[in-house]
Write a structure and sequence with these properties.
It is built from 3 helices and 3 strands; from the N terminus they run H-E-H-E-E-H. It is mainly alpha-helical. About 15% of the residues are buried. Keywords: Membrane, Transmembrane, Transmembrane helix.
């Protein structure tokens, strides 16, 4: 099996954390479970999910997975993306003007 590195490993760790809560049906405050990450990578993924409010604590060491908050934290786009999109629009506008002239 191929060795994962970079974001692939962190994605796998995040998947494992999410899967753990789903497997235990810990999706509401009343269903909170005791949880301790199994590896440093899972600890990092767990802490990230907890910092964004996706994993919430009801009382010490008992957590649940808030599906409503999942996906609210969207990655910020690189400004280069906007510059590239603007350039494409300019080129398309110029091409349109040349064709219709």
């Amino acid at each position: 099996m191929a060795k994962l590195n970079g974001s692939g490993a962190s994605d796998l760790a995040q998947y494992r954390v999410q899967r753990h809560f789903a497997d235990h049906h810990a999706l509401a405050p009343g269903d909170a479970i005791e949880y301790a990450p199994a590896s440093p990578a899972e600890r990092k993924a767990f802490d990230k999910l907890r910092d964004t409010g996706v994993i919430r604590e009801t009382h010490p060491a008992h957590y649940w997975f808030d599906l409503d908050r999942m996906g609210r934290e969207k990655p910020k786009r690189d400004p280069k993306t906007y510059v590239a999109a603007a350039l494409v629009l300019v080129v398309l506008a110029l091409a349109y003007m040349l064709v219709t002239s």
